[in-house]
Amino acid sequence: MFTRMTRVVGVAVGFAGLYTFADTKKNEVTTSPPHLLATSPKTEGAIPFRSGDRTMKHYFITGPPASGKGTQTNMLLQEYPHLTHVSSGDLFRAEIRSGSELGQQLLSYVSAGTLVPEPIAIKPVLQAVEAAPGRVILDGYPRSLEAAGLLKQNGVEPAVVFVLNVSPEVVRARVHGRLLDPLTGDTYHKLFAPPPPDIAARCEKRVDDTTKKLERRLKVWKGTRAAIQESYSAYIVEVDGSKTIAEVSAEIVSVVAALEMTETLVVFFSF
Length: 271
Ligand code: ADP
Hints:
Strand order of the largest sheet: 2-3-1-4-7
Helix content: 40-55%
Bound molecules: adenosine-5'-diphosphate
Structural class: alpha/beta
Radius of gyration: 19 Å
Shape: globular
Distance between the termini: 13 Å
Number of strands: 7
Largest sheet: 5 strands, parallel
Strand content: 5-15%
C-alpha cells in the first residue's frame, strides 16, 4: 500500500514538474530552475515542498525599481489569497511610522543618511514571515549577499525567485507615471494601469519617484542582481517584465500553479 502510494505521489510530482516545464516553455520564461524538474534523477530530492521535513519554502520576487513587483504580487494574491505579501519597503515605512523601538532604531540610520545594518533591517521581514499563516511572497528582499545569508540562517528560503527583467528606459517611463493610493498602498499608472475613477483624486506620486533617486536605485539594483544570482541561481525564473501586466502575471501564475499543485498532492498523499 505504502509503495503504491509512494508511486502515485512520484507520478503526481513528476507530472507537476513536467507541467511547470511545459508551461514555462510555452510562456517563454527564459530560465527554468533545475529543481522544478522533479523527474530528473539528478534533482531528485530537491523538490521545494518536501513532505518529510515540511520545510516551508516561499516565493521571492525581485527586479529593478518599478519593474512591477508590487503589481505582480497583487495579481498573484488575487489567484492565491492564502499567500501573504511581505514587502520590505512597506514594512520599513510602517515600522518607522509606528514609532516602535525597532522603528526608532531604523529611523536613526535613515535620518543620519547611513545604510541600516542588515541584521537590523532583516528584523521586520523575519517578524512578518513568522507571523504569516503560510507561504509568503517576499517582494524586493533580500538585496545583498549578507541579507540572503541571514535569511537562510533563519530558515527563510525560496521555492522560486522570480526576477522581473525590465530595461532602464521602461523603468523610467513607469516611474514617471506611477501613482500610489495612500489609503490601500495599491499602485497604479497614469497610462498603463489608471486608478478607478472613484479613487483617482486621492492617488499621488510616490515621494521617492524622483529622477535622481531612481538613477541611484537603478545602480543599487546591479549589486542586488549579482547577490541574487550568487545566492539563488538554482531557483531563479527570469520573466520578461516589459510585457503587459496580464502577460507577466500569466507567466508567474503558471509556475506558482504547478508548485501549489505539487504541494497539495504531496500533503494529501503523505497522510
Ligand atoms: P515595483 O513594485 O517593482 O517598484 P510597481 O508594481 O509599483 O513596481 O510598478 C511600477 C509602475 O509600473 C506602476 O505605476 C505600475 O502600475 C506600472 N506597471 C507595472 N507593471 C507594468 C507592466 N507590465 N506594464 C506597464 N506598466 C506596469
